[in-house]
Amino acid sequence: xxxxxxxxxxxxxxxxxxxxxxxxxxxxxxxxxxxxxxxxxxxxxxxxxxxxxxxxxxxxxxxxxxxxxxxxxxxxxxxxxxxxxxxxxxxxxxxxxxxxxxxxxxxxxxxxxxxxxxxxxxxxxxxxxxxxxxxxxxxxxxxxxxxxxxxxxxxxxxxxx
Length: 161
Known about the structure:
161 residues, alpha+beta, Metal Binding Protein, Guanine Nucleotide Exchange Factor, Chain A, 7-stranded mixed β-sheet, 3-stranded antiparallel β-sheet, 30% strand
């Protein structure tokens, strides 16, 4: 469904963007790193190909931060209000953005497809029935819908992987 567009922005509105397709998959991550970086119980990230994120206004700037993998993550922030808009992780590189769902104009349109790293979730967080939940990470082949897996294969082929 590529005719979908979802707009988002930072708090001050200096950076605006549009997702020109639905995300590949939406993670609700309960790892301690995401808790620390978000200041909340979890982070909600929509994985999408970078070329399907269109900048409408402004230019976010990259801030390198450590990550659990040891390879770091690049967090793209508004240069004015410093809100994080998306990240790039070493595994997927710059080709995939992990868009902060809370920065979308309509964040309720992208509920999580999976809860990950639930072994470290806050004990008072109650996970909904019917949404997959795994103690750590998962195998994409087990959870992603066929259309998302096809897009992933296409992306990897363009990268020569």
